[in-house]
Amino acid sequence: MPRHYDAIIIGAGPAGTTAALQLAEAGLSVLLMEKERLPRDKPCGGGLTPKACRLLPVPMEDLVLNRATAVQVRVGNRLSTRFQSKQAAIWMVRRRELDFRLAESAARRGVEIHEEESFRALELGSEVRVTSDRGSYQGRIAIGADGAESRVAACLRLPRSHRWMVALEAEGEVEGDPLAGEAVVDLAVPGGYAWVFPKGGLYNVGLGSFHPRIARELRPRFHRFVEGMGLPTSRPLVPVGHRIPTGPPPNLLHRGNALVVGDAAGVADPFFAEGISYSLLTGYLASETVIDYLAGRSRDLSPYTLRVRTALGREARLWNITASAVYRAPSLCLRVLAASRRLRAEVEKAIAGEASPCQQWCRTGFPINGNRVHADAAQG
Hints:
alpha/beta; eight-stranded mixed sheet; 12 helices; about 25% strand
């Protein structure tokens, strides 16, 4: 007979582990299944925006390799301006360390973690049956947190995002710190941007685009960008490609007694394709919904879809409009930004997430283990 759990979560990224933490703290039995061995590398810039920092369920200060208070925004070598704000500082971390810290915290709270176990199938009914390459498990609900190419979402026949960024990135050692801790965002990529995130002696470099035709050109563009930046790397950077589904969220994120979170739900922002903060938020919203459902306060999981679309829909649409304007005329937009102090202040506020639903949810949603205070204090 299959082992039984209150919740079975597939995928140990920020969304899955956050949901697992909250469900375990509510006294539920949780199985967290991860196809790779932890800690594992993950293609990701590893930049935690202030709104992501506020949502972290456990302390992460010791993992921060750099606090980038300045971002140089440029369009190739033609034009550049600098945004500088302690309030909008971006914490630079390695995703393998971030995800591992979250998974360790989940395990300490009683979450049962199965590493190197791959999801195979999901059957819905009065309970869910999850099949892996090792066996099968019975549960009251299932949560798909298995990333952009989610097999859980496919099993549930859920609609997917219509807007994807194709990204190519690499992380490697750099001699010294040539950018003095400043991040670089270059809007010279058609329909997207290139970036450099300094993490002390470790740099994350990448580029991404929403234009399908540009996807075929990413690799040569990546190497030209690295060469143009003149980064003194100790060895050649080997980029890894991946896709990022962005919002607005689809109109259905659950079916029966199963739902999807994070990249599996397609909630990254449609401008920079930043997804960690939204993954964390969907993890919390999913756990709220599941707890209500299992306690009999909700007839089904439909409040989850509504909560995500209410929290993120408007912000995603605004980022979509911003992306359309900036990617269509990056030089003009950057000139306008450089000339307007008020507009620059608004951009810095947006980066800090002060008016974001993530910020509002921090004030009214689940307590985050006291971490809200420590994150706000760390932002200065």
